[in-house]
Structures are given as C-alpha cells and as structure tokens.
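Input (structure):
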C-alpha cells in the first residue's frame, strides 16, 4: 500500500493530549537552553531579546520546531563574557536533557507496549509502511545499556513511540549541533574562549574546519554505486553535482577566490573518492549537507575577535572542555533514516 504523507486534517484534542509529553519535554529543554543564554547576558548587562521559537507546520516526519534563538542587541567586548553567554545555553539545556533521559529510561512501559501500538495502527485505514530508524550517540548508548531495563529498552526503529525519549534524543542532537566549534555557534564561542582569537579567527584554521565538516556528509553519497565505485554512472554524476554545489555555496561565504574554491571542492571529492576505493563500505550522511550550506551562508566560519582578550579562569577552562566533551558524546553521525 502506498503511503501518502501530508498535514493531518483530522487532528483532535486527543491527538493534542498524546503529543504533550513530547512537546513539553522538547520545548522545556530548548527553553532552558535559551534562557541560559538570556540570564547570563542579563548578568553581564548585555542587552538580549527573549527567545524566538521557530515553529514547523504539523507535517508528518517534522519535529514541530527548528529550535529557538535569542538576539544579542549590544556589543560583547570581552572574551570572558562572550564565553559565558555562549556556554551557558548548552550546559543548562544538557542538564535538563539528562534529567529527561533518566526519567524516560527509568519509566519505560512494559514489553508489550509497542505491539499494542502496532495492532492499533493496523486497524486504521491507510496504515503506512515507512520505517523510521533513529541514530545513536555515546550518551544515549550509555543510558540504553546501563540505566534502562534491557527487556524494555526500545529498538531505534520504535523510538518515536516513546515521546520523552524521542524528545531527549533530539535534544542531544541539537546540543551537539550547537556545540560544533564553528564560527558563532555556541561551540565556536567556547573554542574562541579557550584558545583566543589568534587561532580561532585565522583564515587557514577556518578553512580546515569548514573542509572537515563537509567530508563526513559526502562520504559514500557522492560516489557510491551498487557494484563498481570506480565507474561514474549518470546517477553518480548527479549526486556529485549536487554535493559540489553545496561545497561552492559554503566556500563562497568565506569570500575566497573562485580558483581556490574550485581547488578545495575538487580536493574534497578526491579524498572521498579514494576513501571509497580503500573502504568500500564507508558511508556518510547527506542530511548534514543542508545544514553545512545554511551555516556556511549565514555566519562566518571564523570567530570575530573581541576587544578585551583577557584569559579565562581555570574554572571557565574546565567548563569549556566539559562542553567539548558533551559535544563528542552527543554527536550523532546519522540522526534519522527512513526505509520504505
């Protein structure tokens, strides 16, 4: 049976009630994250707006939101203050995400919960056959293996049936994205605070980090074929042109010459092509390409310097390295896949 995905026009108050555990958990973590930034900015007397929430329409496969942001309305002159505001959000949201993970794994329903859901779905007309598979990361793996009851821990094919765990999982994904040590993302502020402007704002350093964040998304996607990876079929060339367009968009935002952009683009593809020949099973996640293109277009790769470059205290340095560890344990190489 063919599955058609569209906005649910038969939405009821019962559906609304069923979605509350997911919505409340996810929005609570996002809100605490943004108010971590906000209250820290207020503490340092930096003007900032209240959070702006970015909604998504009620379309199937959508998360309901793209997150939230606050806008800084006055200049941040100090490296220390910049660090404080940047790190406060991820740390605050991470604490709530940990609490949600503990609650979700310690209150798992009985083993027949998923079977009852499937039975109810099969009774509904038009039940689809789309298989949604969530990814994994180090922290979620730890909770699965050392906190939850092994007999009740859900498969990653069924994780979206567990609203609190589903929200906590995506909160970890959003946290890791925010903590990417790039530009003016929270991780960029943290890295800038730890090592200063001489390294984080250097052009070659920005180039290297931009190249690295494009290697994983394209691995196995731009060149892969069913049997012969060294043969460039038409579909392979189409994937390559799409991938190359994203590379060009990113490096155009860095305001480097067209010649250098072309050299870097060819170099990235060459590395991926050779990697596929050496390791035929290597795969990337093309979903990160859109993110790389958006980030590359709306913010600089290098972090802009502040006027006051005072070194961080030991306590702040420890928090900075903790934040980078959180990035590592929350990073999810392939957050979601769909199998029809």
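Output (sequence):
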């Amino acid at each position: 049976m063919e599955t058609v995905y569209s906005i649910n026009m038969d939405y009821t108050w019962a559906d609304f009630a069923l979605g509350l555990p997911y919505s409340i958990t996810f929005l609570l973590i996002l809100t605490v994250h943004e108010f971590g930034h906000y209250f820290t900015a207020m503490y340092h007397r930096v003007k900032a707006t209240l959070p702006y929430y970015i909604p998504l329409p009620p379309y199937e496969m959508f998360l309901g939101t793209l997150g939230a942001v606050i806008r800084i309305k006055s200049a941040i002159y100090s490296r220390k203050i910049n660090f404080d505001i940047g790190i406060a959000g991820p740390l605050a949201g991470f604490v709530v995400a940990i609490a949600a993970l503990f609650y979700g794994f310690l209150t798992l329903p009985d083993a027949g919960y998923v079977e009852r859901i499937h039975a109810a779905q099969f009774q509904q007309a038009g039940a689809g056959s789309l298989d949604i598979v969530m990814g994994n990361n180090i922290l979620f793996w730890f909770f699965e293996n050392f906190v939850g009851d092994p007999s009740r821990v859900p498969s990653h094919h069924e994780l979206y049936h567990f609203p609190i765990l589903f929200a906590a999982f995506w909160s970890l994904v959003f946290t890791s994205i925010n903590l990417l040590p790039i530009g003016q993302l929270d991780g960029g502020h943290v890295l800038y605070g730890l090592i200063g402007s001489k390294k984080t704002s250097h052009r070659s350093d920005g180039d290297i980090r931009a190249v690295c964040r494009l290697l994983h998304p394209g691995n196995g996607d731009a060149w892969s074929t069913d049997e012969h990876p060294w043969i460039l079929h038409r579909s392979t060339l189409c994937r390559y042109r799409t991938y190359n367009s994203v590379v060009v968009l990113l490096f155009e935002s860095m305001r480097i010459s067209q010649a250098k952009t072309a050299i870097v683009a060819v170099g990235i593809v060459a590395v991926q092509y050779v990697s596929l020949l050496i390791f035929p099973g290597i795969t990337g996640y093309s979903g990160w390409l859109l993110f790389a293109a958006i980030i590359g277009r709306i913010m600089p790769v290098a972090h802009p310097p502040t006027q006051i470059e005072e070194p961080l205290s030991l306590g702040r340095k420890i928090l900075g390295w903790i934040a980078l560890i959180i990035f590592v344990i929350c990073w999810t190489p392939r957050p979601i896949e769909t199998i029809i």
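Notes: DSSP finds twelve helices and four strands in the chain. The mean pLDDT is 79.
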